[in-house]
Every structure is written in C-alpha cells, then in structure tokens.
C-alpha cells in the first residue's frame, strides 16, 4: 500500500473515503463521532483505523468497537498531546487486554521530548503536528503550534532512536504537505 493515511477529521475520516481509498490500499482513520451502530462490519482491517479521545466515554466506546470490528489499528487522538492524562491513556491502551496487541497511533505532538514520552507510554506510531495545517483550528483557538517541517524532522529523529515510525498530521488542504512529509528525513540526513 501507499504510506498515506487519511486523518480522522469529520469530513475526511469517513466510510465513503474508506470505500474509495481501500481500492488503492490506502488507510482511513475514522473520525470519532460515528456511533457504534453506524460502523459496517465488512471492512478490511488492514486499511482502516478506529480513533478515540481520552475520556471515560471514549474508552467505553473504543472497547465496544474493538469487540465489534477487531481492528488492527487504533488512534488515540487529541489536539494537544502534552497532558499527563493523555500519556496515562496511551499506557492504559498498551496494557489492557482488549488493546495490548493493537497498533497504537497516538498524538498529536510537535517536540522530540513528547515523542519520546508517548513512545515510552506505549505508542507504536507518533502523530506529529499541532496547528500547522490550513484547516486546523488548534493554533487559532489555543495559541499552540509549531512549524510542521521542523516538528517532523525533530520528532522523527527522536522516534528513530526508539525504532518507531511517525505519522505526519498536517491537516492541510495543500499538496505541499506531502512534500514536507517525504523530504523531511532526507533533509535531516543531509543537514
């Protein structure tokens, strides 16, 4: 497959998007607003990922989705992954019987230190990016954000030390996001 995942935003992480992208062996991370009953059961688990927030209600729904769908991938998604609650939730997912064998994608962060912390908590893949994209409102609403290329290069280095991959979450409507994601490792090696 192509190493592109569609983010779990409510307009992109949809069942309709999944049906198109699975034809090209590309992954869709479903947004977390679907109800349990809305999920179809005929999906290929190689190409979809359920997502969860970090509330008790999110945890309950995630367990129900796992029982219904048995997905391979699980995204723990927050706008700002710099809280103790977030890291505790990642750890819970890594240790819990229902989720310990899932591939856990967790974020979002934009610093090497937070990347290392999420990996130590139990993430397999770290989502990088806070506020960089043209459709992202996090920076506008919270004042938190970091330039995406810098975050990608710095966090990828930290993840590489732990032999973990990263996912660049650019939330961009522009194709330049693909270029930044593809070029960052090469730029880091040459610099």
In spatial order, strands of the major sheet run 1-2-3-4-5-6-7
- Please, what is the average pLDDT? 87
Structure summary, number of beta strands? 7
Structural class: alpha/beta
Give the strand content. 15-25%
Distance between the termini: 30 Å
Encode the helix/strand succession as letters: EHEEHEHEHEHHEH
Largest sheet: 7 strands, parallel
Shape: globular
Number of helices: 7
Give unreliable regions as ranges.
Answer: none
Radius of gyration: 16 Å
Query: Considering DSSP H and I runs of 4 or more, what fraction of the residues is helical?
Result: 40-55%
Keywords:
7 strands; alpha/beta; seven-stranded parallel β-sheet; 191 residues; 40% helix; globular
How would you describe the overall organization of this protein?
With 191 residues, the chain is an alpha/beta fold. Helix content is 40%, strand content 15%. It has helices at 15-21, 56-69, 84-95, 112-121, 138-142, 148-161, 176-190; strands spanning 5-6, 27-29, 48-52, 73-77, 103-109, 125-128, 166-168. The protein has a 7-stranded parallel beta sheet. Helix 4 (112-121) links the parallel strand 5 (103-109) and strand 6. Helix 3 runs parallel beside helix 4 and helix 4 crosses helix 6 (148-161). The longest helix is centred in the C-terminal third of the chain and has 15 residues, at 176-190. The radius of gyration is 16 Å and the shape is globular. It starts with a strand and ends with a helix. The relative contact order is 0.11.
């Amino acid at each position: 497959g192509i190493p592109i995942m569609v983010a779990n935003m409510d307009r992109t992480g949809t069942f309709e998007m999944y049906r198109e992208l699975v034809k090209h062996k590309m992954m869709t991370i479903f947004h977390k607003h679907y109800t349990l009953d809305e999920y179809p059961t005929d999906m290929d688990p190689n190409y979809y990922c359920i997502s969860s927030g970090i509330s008790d209600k999110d945890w309950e729904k995630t367990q129900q989705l796992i029982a219904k769908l048995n997905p391979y991938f699980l995204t723990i998604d927050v706008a700002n992954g710099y809280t103790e609650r977030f890291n505790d939730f990642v750890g819970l997912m890594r240790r819990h019987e229902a989720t310990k064998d899932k591939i856990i994608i967790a974020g979002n962060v934009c610093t090497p230190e937070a990347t290392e912390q999420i990996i130590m908590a139990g993430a397999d893949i770290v989502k990088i990016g806070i506020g960089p994209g043209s459709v992202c409102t996090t920076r506008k609403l919270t004042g938190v954000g970091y330039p995406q290329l810098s975050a990608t290069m710095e966090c990828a280095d930290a993840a590489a030390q732990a032999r973990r991959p990263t996912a660049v979450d650019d939330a961009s409507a522009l194709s330049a996001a693909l270029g930044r994601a593809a070029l960052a490792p090469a730029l880091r090696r040459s610099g």
